[in-house]
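Box 3.1 A note on notation
Throughout this textbook, protein chains are presented in two layers. The first layer is the amino acid sequence; the second is a token string describing backbone geometry. Keep the layers aligned when reading.
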Amino acid sequence: MIVFSDLDGTFFDSHKRITPINRQALDELAARGIEFVPCSGRPLMGIVPEILQHPAVHYAVSANGALVSDLASGKALHRVDLGLERALWFFRLAQGHDVVFDFFADGHDYMLCEQIERLPEFVSDPYVLGSMRSTRTPFEGDPVEFAHSLGHIERVGVYWRDPADRDAIEEAVRCDQSVAVVRSYANNIEVSDRDATKGAALTWLCGHLGIPREDALGFGDNINDISMIKAAGTGVAVANAEPEVRAAADVVAMSNDDAGVGRFVLDRLGVSL
């Protein structure tokens, strides 16, 4: 067995905490030598140390599958970058719309300082807002010049307020068949290379480790998790997942606030609660 799990809305509860049952599941996996792979839309540096330093965790999938990392060595095992040209194309497309913009690059999430200050206009949930602020690296100056200074641009994204802005941006982006367009929150758009998905990362890492994909559990709640749920031998949606995610899953577990991931894993391991 190998376990791949989204974090926000899936493994974390609504207050961005690891529940005691989910922590118990991590400990049980570690005791049995079973890998737990955080598979997140977050940048690598935005995945909390409590996850990355747990003895069950040796690999991480970040930026929606654009980066697979070996945590012991700190090396990138697998990359599928969006790259400068497409990142700037999307940035210019977003101009003229009321959005805030992210560059995910080199394991970080970069956002203009003044846009970080505007985040409360776009995000009302205090726990989501706190998480976003803690994982953004602020920068100043011209975004185009800043983008040229980055090494590996993994993905980009925007948060919108007006659905008309969303529709205009999505319509233009979906004309480019070289990119994948997903979301991890109701009011954002995330753009990566079409081969940079959580499902592709799961498939690659299972192959790298010599673990049959059929032995993988994949847990998620939002649109960016669908490819992972479909790629896993057993795809599991938590009860609070979007309808499309539940429809794609083999099983629906309890919600993130009810420790659905931990309960499902412990049950698979034969551990009674």
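The chain has a mean pLDDT of 96. The two ends are 20 Å apart (CA to CA).
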